[in-house]
Amino acid sequence: MIRIDIYQGNSHGLCHILPVSSQKKTDNQKILKGGTMDTIILTPESNDHFAGMVEEMSRSNLSRCWHCLCCSGGCPFAQDMDMLPNRVIRMVQLGMKHRVLSCSTIWLCVGCNTCSMECPNAVDMAAVMDALRRIAIQEKVKIAEPAVLSFHQKVIDSISRYGRTHKLEIMMRYKLSEKDFFSDMDLGLKMLSKRKLDLMPSKVKDRQQVQDLFTLAKELS
Ligand code: SF4
Ligand code: SF4
């Protein structure tokens, strides 16, 4: 088994490749503070085509990443991720397909684009995360955060029906599917009382055009 250490905290992304026997636990907070080695244990799994596939789908050149940590440092959800965004890139480069597709990080990413804007090498991390989510669904990998995927689906359903999002309906459908009826009830009532949630959906005039876009997207995928 091979261990790869990525030295974090400078702009050179020094890597050490060492033989080891056990997985070192990653501590995102320590790594983000700098000066700590992030360790990747190489598994026998290695998919030579994976990096190319992700590069093509995200239109990003991953070999330009020098692990400067700008993306991970700016990510508002980094503390909750099971691996930092730059680590995801490294593991894609190493062909660790299953590990990457089954991680929580790709589902906790909200696509805010902060990382993509901060990358000095124009790696579009948000697009990489999007590509990884698409591959995970296509390849029927066990989704690490099924509730997040379920929420995404409710949002897409709403857009396909109305051409816009109807937040109240999205939340109700989501809560129903998760059988979680009472959490966030206070927040929902507060939002309703402040008229932040519409009772009735607002619809675009030409919903057929929206349907056509969905049909086209299905044909292209
Ligand atoms: S993707 Fe960009 S910002 Fe992130 S570590 Fe690599 S070079 Fe730095
Ligand atoms: S796009 Fe995703 S990975 Fe990038 S900063 Fe936003 S949440 Fe983090």
From TrEMBL:
Top class in the EC scheme: oxidoreductase
Keywords, sorted A to Z: 4Fe-4S, Iron, Iron-sulfur, Metal-binding, Oxidoreductase
Any one GO CC term of the record: plasma membrane
Enzyme Commission number(s) of this protein: 1.8.98.1
InterPro entries: 4Fe4S_Fe-S-bd, 4Fe4S_Fe_S_CS, HdrC_iron-sulfur_subunit, Helical_ferredxn
SUPFAM superfamilies found in the cross-reference section: alpha-helical ferredoxin (SSF46548)
Pfam families, A to Z: Fer4_17
One Gene Ontology MF term: 4 iron, 4 sulfur cluster binding
Superkingdom to which the source organism belongs: Bacteria
Domain 4Fe-4S ferredoxin-type residue range list: 99-128
Name of the protein in its database record: Putative heterodisulfide reductase, C subunit, HdrC
Organism: Desulfotignum phosphitoxidans DSM 13687
